[in-house]
């Protein structure tokens, strides 16, 4: 009996419910933690828990979470007789006798891996762990001498023509020969050299015994035609079904059919029986057995300091990319498609602005959305814009801003990698649109980083080895294999994207995990040790992110308050700039290149942009002199003065539009220029030109001609053309889509186990008839474990007696909806037609109307 069973009973369980009843509270809590869907709602008793654990949907979810060896173990039990002994199972996994060529490293038929030793030895060492995994998830029950798979698990993994088993084994001889005439069975016995029998059962037993004996089967095959042996070899590892071209099989096939080595299932279809296949495989159910996960392959080892420096640089670049994205969208917000999401043209435009590939741009857009920094507004023409939370985010230190977005990446379920693909209905998936959530995402991202954390510091593994280990841990997760559905390996794709995105965010550097990122995967001081694969609570993750940010902060450069002006009208920012300096420089100059240092270029258009925003020439000169560590170059001073001198000499207003200038010679120059023909200008007065174009178009045309016009109001004042910073209404970050029910916390598990135990005690406890004072004991009206039924007088009398003695009672109760249940209660007070009692089933004090209690009985035991 497994160690998690309770010590009170040594009898072998007859059902899964009996097996669960024998487990201790810790084992039941572990089951509910591993399969939280069993808790919704909390089962009334252990029988209901066992029934729910055997439903197909719940079993599929549990089987999909098995590692490859636990799954292979379940598959082997599924093709073994029920119940299966431990020794039989070990033979199915490791083979009968690992002789020469079997069990040796690198043997493709045993799954040997050079340097990993003998697979049979690893099977013997790892099989107890695999059985514990299956038992703890209630997929397997019984002792080692009588292993039973839950019926639904066996149905999922048992081979059939429509859904072949992963083992490649076909039906048993009994199943394959169902419907075969007794005479045909006797002919097979005679051809196989076996004595005739009097009935089909003994005939099949004789054939089964023949194929179970390696020596006798070898003698039978010794005289087989070479073509027959070749056919057996083709069907040996599956699929076990073959076809013949005509209704009359060829002599090699006939030879096999006459000896039961093949069985005809249709006029042109034959099958290799399971017993024959196992003999040909030396007793192994799987061609390759994998008791151990594949070892990671380290591509290169780097000093941890180099990894951290690279990752910190990526973290800083990530913040810059997000700021560039959101600053672009706050002045030019893209529209929301009618069907939701971002248009393909807007995605391309944003990728061009950020100088990134479209898939990478989609990642940053989705990350800003997941972090609550971006949302659609509520205007009639809906558009995407930064949220008010973006302004608060900008005011925080860089390491805290980074931690904020990383936490939302870590827990988010939206998959940017799916942008540009199509869903199951053929609809295109767009950035910020519907259909991008995948519940597996957070689990895969966490597990991928945990695998990197398990390596030595500075180790960069190959992507292939990481993906192979993830496939071993969850071979069915994201593939649909457990239910026979055809779909892509989503888990592998998610892992590939997770590795790429972790590098972009600065969680990894050069392919190795940054030291500060390990804090995201470790429990905090005083917290219980984290179990690999367990989800973290929001509070634990926030605390881990704060520790991570604290370790990242010293690696980030301090923001600078200066720039270096150069004679070629450029400025070099040797590092990240303080926010006010960066904002002003972004208006005054254009970014020419980015990297460790950012290069800005001053142009007439950029200087005019600063003047349009309300800055004066003296403001610009003072700004440059205050923030440059080098003298202000004379060409830059001349550029500012020249643009400022010409800025505003022309005034454009609304007539439809007009041009006003105190210098009539300048107006004459404009009208004489052939480039002004599209504007259809005409002279209204010596200092005023009129045009049918709108003011904004007229401004643009004049600027294209090289002039620096300024817009003016109806009162003649210069209009400051500062771009409005668009904001959406306050929006919370989108909630991740959970991958199934949430994992219950310890308090909920304790309460659930207590309630299930109490309900099971109420359903299975022996009870005695009520004994009211002065009345003769009466037997319960409903024998055989049904709810008790007593008269009202007996019920009240028994209740009052239990109040005085403190005994627990077993009652039948019908609620207001007419649903009947059984409960164990300890009465505290009986008055006014109600009984107040501690309900052991619900684990709380409750009050019940006496008229809804069908009967009461004393418990025979504690």
TrEMBL record:
Any Pfam family hit: Helicase_C_3
Location of the WYL domain: 795-856
Keywords associated with the record: DNA-binding
Region (Disordered): 1-21, 93-119, 725-745, 760-793
Composition bias, Basic and acidic residues: 760-769
Ranges of biased composition (kind: Pro residues): 731-744, 776-786
All residue ranges annotated as the Helicase XPB/Ssl2 N-terminal domain in the record: 563-684
UniProt GO molecular function: DNA binding
DNA-binding as UniProt keyword: yes
Superkingdom per UniProt: Bacteria
Protein name in UniProt: DNA-binding protein
